[in-house]
Amino acid sequence: MPKIQTADPSSKDKVLELLKRDPISNGLAIQDLQLWFENSKFHYCEQPFSYLHISGHPAHANSTIISFGGDQSVTSELLSHVKPQAPFTARETDKKYAAAVRTYYPEAKIYDEIRMDVTRETFKPGHTGRARQLTEKDALQLASFFGAPPQAVNRFMGWLKGARIFLGVFEGETLASIGSSFIALPETWNLVSINTLERFRGKGLATELTSSLVARALDETKVVTVTVVSDNVPAIKTYEKIGFQKKQDRMWADCGANSHP
Hints:
The structure is a single chain. By secondary structure, the chain is α+β, with helices and mostly antiparallel strands. The chain is about 25% helix and about 30% strand. The protein contains eight helices and twelve strands. The chain has a twelve-stranded mixed beta sheet with strand order 1-2-3-4-5-12-6-11-10-9-8-7, with helices on both faces. Strand 9 (about 175-185) and strand 10 form a beta hairpin.
């Protein structure tokens, strides 16, 4: 059995060096260890390098989000060693770890996803400047977007604070389309929660929003990624229209968390 360790301040730099060999696949762990080390838990073995990471991102303060990396043959040992307790969600992670997750938690609901990437060379801008940055002052609008009552507004504050960019497109006074950054590193940015209210779909708002996010991200990074459910054909077509290309099969594993992509 490989030797499993837990990252601490003395091993932080070594672990980051190992992760940065593949910054796009390991972006969630890299960002967490750089910005929220005290709130993250990183379990790993060096030979072969493999890890199980529990996110410390502010947006995950009320949930347990896990990601995996490295040699898939070690994933089962990591799960047995760490023993994460349900409910938790495994996301932003390669589909090759799905079997180990299902063995550990047989009731897991596995959703097939695709990671898509865009670079400065492949980007085809499709925005006109309608999207604007959302701030904490927009938290009530964001709560309404998700059908949450006004008293739940504080649930959205961590999300707004944790994102480097959080854009919205308005139709009149209504927040109609949203999207944000999840990972923001010099090597890669990851975009999440790109969504348009159903009654405003078909008007090009998703293209406007996504293209605005990409343009902003490419000012600071080399590669922008987005993860989309494999059968979400309209979203995939929108991303392809502005230059995203399919790069990796991923999974979202709902382990008792009642979550879905």
